[in-house]
Specification:
Layout (H helix, E strand, L loop, with lengths): L7 E3 L3 E2 L9 E4 L18 E5 L2 E2 L6 E4 L4 E4 L14 E5 L7 E4 L4 E2 L4 E6 L6 E6 L2 E7 L2 E4 L7 E3 L6 E3 L8 E9 L1 E8 L1 E2 L3 E7 L3 E3 L5 E9 L4 E6 L2 E2 L6 E4 L4 E4 L10 E7 L2 E4 L6 E13 L6 E3 L4 E10 L3 E6 L2 E6 L2 E4 L8 E9 L4 E12 L3 E7 L3 E3 L5 E9 L4 E6 L2 E2 L6 E4 L4 E4 L10 E6 L4 E3 L6 E14 L5 E2 L4 E10 L3 E6 L2 E2 L6 E4 L8 E9 L4 E9 L1 E2 L4 E5 L5 E2 L4 E8 L4 E6 L2 E2 L6 E3 L5 E4 L8 E9 L2 E4 L3 E3 L1 E2 L6 E3 L10 E6 L10 E3 L2 E4 L3 E4 L10
Length: 712
């Protein structure tokens, strides 16, 4: 694809190029000395490339080739070109890049005078100013030439090179370039010339709208002004886009969909640019809405109950635009009264009922209403309370209370028991419009006091209290025994106390083992008791009014203390490997016997046996370890006693005798033989010679031994 292309003009260099789309292209600066270009930059200290008067920004398809000062395109793109082609300028700048151009005003207002000065101030002998690709003027020494496009409006300070433009227009916006050869430099800046905002006006599609059904459209415009920005205000608040609010046409058009009563305005349009601002006149919308949010008061209060003969002024209001038409109704029937007020004088009881205020908006065709119930009554007086009976029996009788009022109308009843409100339940019922209270199967918790509170909205009065006398019991009967023990020791003192819930107080009868004790006090005292006082004690209570009985019982067990405990043996001494039995003889009632040996408790094993009540201890067979001091300890619930020690010695022997003495002797000499044996029981030693008894001592002296006496 062949493209149009503008002749490339460089600072003193030219080249003709015919470019093709998507093809590579090299633009080479000719003339002057080649300079190295360091790095991938399109600019060094002396050379700058421009496109259409704007400093060139390298794209991805562009790069600068070093040394030969060439701008290279990898592939030429359409976006770089338009129908008139593109102008690329390579300018060779010899002066330092530190020189800048500073506008006296930027942005400037149409008609202003703008001076473009060089900073720092530089003395220039010659040069030229251009905007874009259009020359403004040139100068040499004290001579300057202004080109026709700026004739009469442009001048240059021939010493500093400062350019002054007067009566600037919006067309004067652009990039201004100053170039000089004495000394050589080039610098540029951009200025913007704006027209101030004037004559801001707004127009609307319509100003009379219906709430929720209409949309408001406001368009803002200016007669003059460049680059305007738009801001909308509703009152003093900024309007921002939301679900119902849209800003279109660069915010110059405001649309409010489904308007509400809060969208009435005033709306204003504020227009501004960097050099000016202006605000339109305000516009208000007339939005029809309602009627809703109705309110109704009587005599300026929320009270709805009044005394006969009172004067009433009812006031009705509704939120509505235009104001709603109001009409009054009584008990659903329209009255010949319109407007927000309904006045009643010297009211009577038959004027009680529902009063309604009806509202209608003939623009929205909507209606609403509010109703209040007025009660007109006579003040209450002389409230009295009576009961059909006050002496009742628990669970048997029913209590009926009747509340009477001498004066009053439209009565309402509330019943109190103590400070608590009585409510209907299974056994509690109200009748006769609440004036009668019935409590079936009364309990002793229903004694009262009961009161009747009567009200009618205009007054209230409470009766005097009524109490019920309810007989009950006996119930929850208990017996307490002091002191509290499982078994009592003979000689002790015991007190039994009996109590129950009962009204009137119940009669008491004490019994033991089913036999009456002819004792009727609440306490029974047993002094220095004996075993014969043991038994089941019962207190029986009787209520003479309710004819009900109740009782409680306690088992009293009395026991003698143990008087003596002795260990005896009636079967002979303890002999090793034989059976040996000890008996524990106890005087008194015994519950348990414990055996001890040498202060340690004895437990049953394969050689130690106890009988069922531990009264006998049998050692079978007796062992050496069974010797020691034996005791038995007898105990019952009221005492315990330990016997004196019984010493048991283990008898054994005699064991095999041992004879000591010389085994060889001289005939005719005197010798002594000794006999010994281990034993622990009475034993006797006897010497025999040739089966004949010789002597019964432990030593045997033999005199004048012969050969015939070789053996014993």
């Amino acid at each position: 694809m062949r493209m149009s292309w503008t002749r490339v003009v460089t600072a003193g260099f030219m080249s003709n190029i015919v470019p093709y789309f998507n093809q590579p292209l090299d633009l080479v600066r000719h003339g002057g000395s080649p300079v190295d270009i360091l790095g991938p930059s399109y600019q060094d200290d002396h050379t700058v490339w421009y496109k259409d008067g704007q400093k060139l920004t390298l794209r991805e398809n562009m790069r600068l080739l070093p040394v030969i000062l060439t701008l290279h395109f990898d592939s030429l793109l359409l976006l770089m070109l338009d129908s008139s082609g593109v102008k690329l300028i390579c300018q060779h700048v010899l002066a330092s890049g530190a020189v800048e151009v500073q506008p006296s005003i930027n942005p400037a207002v149409v008609g202003d005078t703008v001076t473009l000065s060089l900073s720092p101030t530089t003395s220039l002998k010659s040069g030229r100013w251009a905007v874009g690709d259009s020359l403004i003027l040139t100068w040499q020494g004290d001579q300057q030439a202004v080109f026709p496009g700026h004739s009469g409006r442009a001048s240059v300070n021939i010493l500093t090179g400062a350019l002054t433009l007067s009566s600037v227009t919006m067309a004067d916006s652009g990039v201004y370039v100053v170039q000089s050869s004495e000394p050589q430099l080039m610098a540029n800046t951009s200025i913007i010339v704006l027209e101030p905002i004037s004559n801001v006006t707004i127009r609307v599609n319509q100003t009379k709208l219906m709430e929720f059904n209409s949309s408001a459209v406001i368009a803002c415009s200016v007669s003059s002004g460049s680059s305007p920005s738009f801001l909308w205000l509703n009152g003093s608040s900024e309007v921002t886009a939301s679900e119902r609010v849209q800003l279109n046409d660069e915010n110059s058009t405001l649309t409010v969909a489904n308007v509400t009563r809060y969208d009435q305005g005033p709306f204003r349009c504020c227009v501004f640019n960097p050099v000016s601002n202006s605000t339109s006149d305000s516009v208000n919308f007339t939005i029809s809405y309602g009627p809703d949010n109705m309110a109704l008061t009587v005599n300026g209060q929320n009270t709805t109950s009044f005394l006969i003969g009172s004067n009433l002024t009812m006031f009705c209001s509704a939120q509505s635009n235009p104001p709603a038409q109001l009409q009054w109704a009584f008990r659903g029937v329209l009255l010949n009264t319109t407007g927000p007020l309904l006045e009643l004088y010297s009211i009577s009881e038959d004027q009680s009922g529902s009063y309604s205020c009806l509202a209608f908006n003939n623009h929205t065709n909507m209606n609403s209403n509010i109703t209040t119930h007025i009660l007109i009554g006579m003040p209450i007086s002389n409230v009295t309370l009576r009961a059909n009976a006050t002496n009742l029996v628990e669970f048997n009788d029913t209590a009926v209370f009747m509340c009477y009022v001498t004066n009053g109308s439209s009565l309402s009843y509330m019943w109190l028991k103590g400070s608590s409100v009585v409510t209907a339940s299974g056994g509690v019922q109200f009748s006769d419009g609440g004036s009668t209270l019935t409590i079936a199967s009364v309990t002793h918790n229903d004694m009262g006091p009961f009161r009747c509170n009567v009200s009618n909205g205009v007054s209230q009065e409470m009766s005097l209290p009524v109490y019920l006398n309810i007989s009950y019991g006996p119930s929850n009967t208990t017996m307490v025994v002091m002191p509290m023990k499982h078994t009592y020791r003979t000689g002790s003192n015991i007190t039994l106390s009996c109590s129950a819930e009962s009204s009137p107080q119940a009669m008491i009868q004490w019994m033991v083992g089913g036999v009456s004790l002819n004792h009727s006090d609440s306490q029974l005292h047993l002094q220095s008791v004996t075993v014969s006082n043991s038994g089941n004690y019962v207190c029986q209570l009787y209520n003479t009014v309710t004819s009900r009985f109740s009782s409680a019982s306690a088992m009293i067990r009395i026991q003698d203390p143990i008087a003596a405990a002795v260990v005896n043996n009636t079967g002979g001494p303890a002999i090793l490997n034989k059976s040996f039995t000890l008996q524990c003889e106890v005087t008194g009632s015994v519950d348990y016997i414990q055996w001890w040996r040498n202060g340690q408790p004895i437990s049953a094993d394969n050689t130690t046996v106890f009988d069922m009540e531990n009264k006998t201890l049998t050692l079978n067979p007796v062992q050496f370890s069974d010797r020691g001091d034996y005791q038995c300890q007898a105990s019952n619930d009221v005492s315990n006693m330990t016997s004196s020690p019984y010493i048991v010695e283990v008898n054994y022997g005699p064991m095999t005798p041992v004879i000591t003495g010389p085994s060889m002797v001289l005939t005719g000499t005197l010798n002594t033989l000794s006999c010994s044996s281990a034993f622990h029981l009475p034993s006797y030693l006897s010497w025999y010679f040739n089966d004949s008894l010789v002597i019964t001592t432990s030593e045997y002296q033999i005199g004048s031994l012969t050969f015939n006496m070789k053996r014993v």
